[in-house]
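Instructor's aside before we start: the two examples that follow are unrelated to each other. I chose them only because their records fit on one page, so don't look for a connection. First example below.
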Amino acid sequence: MTDTNSKPEIDAPEGPAPEDLVIEDLVIGDGAEATPGSTVDVHYLGVEYDSGEEFDSSWSRGQSINFPLQALIAGWQEGIPGMKVGGRRKLTVPPHKAYGPAGGGHRLSGQTLIFVIDLLGVS
């Protein structure tokens, strides 16, 4: 059983990065379900696929984030709906569903990213 009350750890991936979004439920929640139009309250950890280096974490800031799904990267817009409050989901997001191709202006452009997301609430 994975503990969703503490910061997740991500094992270094093996093999080439996937070319499309990979959605993996680590814990199935039993609360309200996120929909494409939801505003979500989440804790998350993000690491670079190639290096395994953490680039962002709401856990490290000690505060969850609350966002409308439409304001987030495509990988989250596609990967969070269907998730239920109390759940933990791992998303492996290729560049075209994250921050675009290399040279796109964002420091994570061209990177495949891995997120572990804990869904705390939906509205």
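Example two begins here.
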Amino acid sequence: MVADTPHMARVHVDSWRQTYRGLMSDSVLDDPELLPARERFWTGVLTDERHSSNRVAVAEVDGAVIGIAMSGPSQDPDATWGWQLFLLYVDAAHHGSGAGAALLNTVLHAHEAAAVWVADPNPRAQAFYGKHGFTPDGHSKAGPDVRERRFVRGPGTA
């Protein structure tokens, strides 16, 4: 799967640009180093032992990567759940195709309680996670690039 890192990085960057324009700084989204940085990120995720417990999946159509997802053990200090969805992106041309749900179900199992931080506002993503049993828990955070709300799901609610 390491051979897929350039394609995974491309989906990651394109999805950020499609989704976060107006929420995230143009200087971040248009940075010429964004794509190489995401390639290094994905290479590290797929090769570094520190990420060995993470689950990574790609969605493909006709051999082309159109979606990516990654989950792993929760990193939230107040977590009462075991897993966290770190990212799930599907190219906008494939929204509504079922690729997002397939990715979600591949990296998070229905019996696992989990959380995900979702850009706010991002009504499309928030509706997607709501459809899959996640509800906002009232926690939010504002990073240097985007504000996020946390959504959680209990076991068996997928």
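The domain at 2-153 is CATH 3.40.630.30 (Aminopeptidase).
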